[in-house]
Write a structure and sequence with these properties.
By secondary structure, the protein is α/β, with parallel strands linked by helices. 31% of the residues lie in helices and 21% in strands. The chain contains nine helices and twelve strands. It has helices at residues 6-18, 20-23, 73-82, 100-103, 106-113, 124-128, 218-231, 247-253, 265-290, and strands at residues 37-40, 43-45, 54-58, 61-65, 90-94, 116-120, 152-154, 159-162, 165-171, 180-188, 191-198, 236-239. It has a seven-stranded mixed β-sheet with strand order 1-2-3-4-5-6-7, covered by helices on one side. Strands 8-9-10-11-12 form a five-stranded mixed β-sheet. The longest helix has 26 residues, at 265-290. The structure holds zinc ion (ZN).
Length: 291
Amino acid sequence: MHRVRTPLLYVIPVLAALAPNLFAQANSDWNEPFPPHRVIGNVYFVGTRGLASYLITTSQGSILVNSSLETSVPLIRASIEKLGFKFSDVKILLISHAHFDHCAGSFQIKELTGAKYMVMEQDVPVIEDGGKTDFQYGKTASAQFKPMKVDRVLHDGDEVKLGDVVMVAHLTPGHTKGCTTWTLKVKDGGKTYDVVIVGSPNVNAGYKLVNNALYPQIATDYERMWRVLKSLPCDVFLGAHGNYYGMEKKYAQLGKSGQNPFIDPAGYRAYIAERESTFRAELAKQTASAK
Ligand SMILES: [Zn+2]
């Protein structure tokens, strides 16, 4: 069932008029708690209904992917504790990309846990100036966040190791210059699975794919991203927002059959193909109108 969302119908147009590029993406479910759950093996969902965060537990503490909003941090903490883990065991903090809805809570997470913050090099300037040099939202005050010093600068293909876990950082740029897709191998029930956490394949409202002075190579960066995403082996498909992979629907199916609903290689392929064709249509439209 859907929640009653009627009031938003009135609120969204007002916000959209104020800052169309940003609020077109905003959603009331970003701050809505969602039951934490095991996805597969040592990978757990600890995010909100609209913003995905993942806890990967290891023999030497945990890795957290996405700090989300400042207001998400108490919800993430509660989710981690509800699963029986310690928030203070978070040793490494990673993000999907340098947008406030995935990184604004990083300051608090680091203060509370002392986790090491590791970010893809092309997103580092934006993280370190609090969003001011973001090519799209640099002048949007509400998209900015507390500037943070990064503890480790990551490069495409770098491994992040903790205990018995190895995560690989794949540069999948376009949505941000350092947008990162994370992969890891997970053991569950005697089998090994490839897990992919997609950074973002989306072209936001207002993104200029052609003649973008602040991001001249944006279209070729998206092309690189499609190549990378299509090349990754994937059994379990996750992403920066739960709606990338149908999180709510899959969660509802948990335990209802013998099969783990999060194992969805076909869903991954279909999602990437659909997102790529949406990108191609937008690129063709912008190319035609630039002539
Ligand atoms: Zn984003």
